[in-house]
From TrEMBL:
Name of the molecule in the record: Acyl-CoA thioesterase
Keyword Hydrolase: yes
Family designation: Belongs to the acyl coenzyme A hydrolase family.
Record-annotated HotDog ACOT-type domain positions: 1-109
SUPFAM superfamilies according to UniProt: Thioesterase/thiol ester dehydrase-isomerase
Length: 129
């Protein structure tokens, strides 16, 4: 799994227990999945369709740095299925695993749009063309 993004846990990211608010973490995961998918599918109209069950395994506190990892599981006709792991860089513990995030490529009318992709492409390889 490649870890693309790091976030610094700040006071505004905390819950009443003084640990990372789950809703904030889910926002970061959704944003990371969207950015990753938009780049892979080369379509800015790519949206979240499904996020599987989540189970918090540990947390983070103010000042900790977390990192978000994304891995492609499957290319569908108009979708991209990912899995995600978030870990605490300071404690080295996994915070959460998300087994499936389904992102869908849309056309101008908001309908699923086939993307024609079958494998991961890296931007550096696209630039050589």
């Amino acid at each position: 799994m490649r870890f693309h993004t790091r976030k610094w846990v700040k006071p505004e990211d905390l819950n009443p227990n003084g640990t990372l608010f789950g809703g904030r973490l889910l926002e970061w995961i959704d944003e990371e999945a969207a950015l990753y998918s938009i780049i892979q599918l080369e379509n800015p109209k790519t949206v979240t369709k499904f996020i599987s069950e989540i189970d918090f395994q540990s947390s983070a506190k103010q000042g900790d740095i977390i990192e978000i990892g994304i891995e492609v599981i499957k290319f569908g006709t108009a979708s991209l299925t990912l899995k995600c792991e978030v870990r605490n860089k300071m404690t080295r513990k996994t915070i959460i695993m998300v087994d499936r995030i389904v992102m869908v490529s849309l056309d101008e009318d908001g309908n699923a749009k086939p993307h024609g992709k079958t494998e991961i492409e890296f931007v550096k390889n696209r630039l050589k063309e």
